[in-house]
């Protein structure tokens, strides 16, 4: 799924991590890195927008809260795959900002 999003954005030689966490870990990360005391849907941790010597762009990490993903899919009456695709695309956009 992440490969599809990267291809859509014409990003070829890109390293991207997508990490799935529970509510507690998502909230702990949000507090630690953003000083926000709530459970986020998605967090992004950028590394670089520029290619290294090997030509690879190490874009960063996207952290997704699995419980929020399931809730949002049910709430919007969509599949988790549809929501996940949207969230990965949103995460990549944020990493590129």
Structure description:
Helix 3 packs across helix 4. It is flat and about 40 Å long. The chain has four helices and three strands; from the N terminus they run H-E-H-E-E-H-H. The model has no long low-confidence stretch (mean pLDDT about 95). A three-stranded mixed sheet has the order 1-3-2.
Note the beta-strand portion: 15-25%
Low-confidence stretches: none
- Helix content estimate: 40-55%
Number of domains: 1
How many strand segments? 3
Give the quaternary arrangement of the chains: single chain
Overall radius of gyration: 14 Å
Helices and strands in order:
Blueprint: H1 2-8, E1 14-21, H2 23-34, E2 42-46, E3 57-65, H3 66-76, H4 80-96
Parallel strand pairs: 1-3
Antiparallel strand pairs: 2-3
Helix pairs in contact: 3-4
Summarize the structure.
This protein is α+β, with helices and mostly antiparallel strands and 97 residues long.
Q: What labels describe this entry?
A:
97 residues; alpha+beta; Collagenase (Catalytic Domain); three-stranded mixed beta sheet
């Amino acid at each position: 799924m992440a490969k599809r999003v990267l291809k859509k954005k014409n990003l070829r030689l890109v390293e991207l991590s997508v990490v799935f966490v529970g509510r507690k870990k998502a909230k702990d990360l949000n507090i630690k890195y953003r000083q926000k005391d709530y459970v986020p849907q998605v967090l992004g941790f950028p590394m670089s927008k520029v290619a290294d010597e090997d030509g690879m762009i190490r874009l960063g990490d996207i952290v997704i809260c699995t419980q929020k993903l399931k809730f949002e899919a049910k709430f919007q009456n969509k599949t988790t795959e549809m929501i996940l695709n949207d969230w990965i695309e949103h995460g990549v956009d944020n990493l590129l900002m």
